[in-house]
Amino acid sequence: xxxxxxxxxxxxxxxxxxxxxxxxxxxxxxxxxxxxxxxxxxxxxxxxxxxxxxxxxxxxxxxxxxxxxxxxxxxxxxxxxxxxxxxxxxxxxxxxxxxxxxxxxxxxxxxxxxxxxxxxxxxxxxxxxxxxxxxxxxxxxxxxxxxxxxxxxxxxxxxxxxxxxxxxxxxxxxxxxxxxxxxxxxxxxxxxxxxxxxxxxxxxxxxxxxxxxxxxxxxxxxxxxxxxxxxxxxxxxxxxxxxxxxxxxxxxxxxxxxxxxxxxxxxxxxxxxxxxxxxxxxxxxxxxxxxxxxxxxxxxxxxxxxxxxxxxxxxxxxxxxxxxxxxxxxxxxxxxxxxxxxxxxx
Length: 346
Known about the structure:
By secondary structure, the chain is α/β, with parallel strands linked by helices. Helices cover 30% and strands 25% of the residues. The chain has two domains: 197 residues, Medium-chain alcohol dehydrogenases, catalytic domain (Quinone Oxidoreductase, Chain A, domain 1); 126 residues, Rossmann fold (3-Layer(aba) Sandwich), CATH 3.40.50. The strands form three sheets. Strands 3, 4, 5, 6, 7, 14 and 15 form a seven-stranded mixed β-sheet that branches. A six-stranded parallel β-sheet has the order 10-9-8-11-12-13, sandwiched between helices. Strand 9, helix 7 and strand 10 form a beta-alpha-beta unit.
């Protein structure tokens, strides 16, 4: 069995691995699709050390084998990758902070005891039973493969400072930004302004409910001022994942406003602390998700309040994975969400 791994700057390797077998508390999943994430693209661009277990962490598939101690899922179940539930035993859980469970966090970042040697750019993967959640039956396999990034955006909005009627700005209309847009609308924002350089992505943002979609720069700044009576946005969601966007998010917020940091920059950012202080900015940051949020997000995907089909623009096989990620890494790609079908002959 071959799995694709990002092993250096602009370097992808197809490495051979033995067919996985389940641990006593583990499962083997035959992967239907795995999405290419922005963190995969950043790793490809930078060449920084990249955990092979999270190289391809947006997957969905069907359970093909289970360990002797497994009871939550059965062979034949369709599942999506998730974070483990709180363990109830770690220091955070014992302190009553189950939402900060260290065991669950380790599973989310691929350093738990049953971490596989590769991610979801492979036909099969062996993970802990706690890492999978049954797929909502109303979702297709293509939709199921987009549950993970959709839940990232769900978690960010759910834990943000967003209030009913707020004027919200979303920086970036990639898969996370477009998901955030829809969750912000569902959560009751009064008006949503999307800032995105790609015209095609701006058009899609408008189709998905943005009141205004504009390119970054002076025009975007003017529109935010106009729509907020010169005050600035109530809340800004940073979904770009680039250093410059962190300070610009604060610049777009009003005094007493909020910023939610979702995009993951892989380098340090320069900020103007005086602006943060004078504006008394309230900051939240969102990494990954909680176990229970997967079923919540899937339920709202299933009833149509949040849609992902328009985000899916291409599907490639393992042999074309490097070409696809190189295209995304240019920053000029016409694609939005690219899924990989890792099965031979795809």
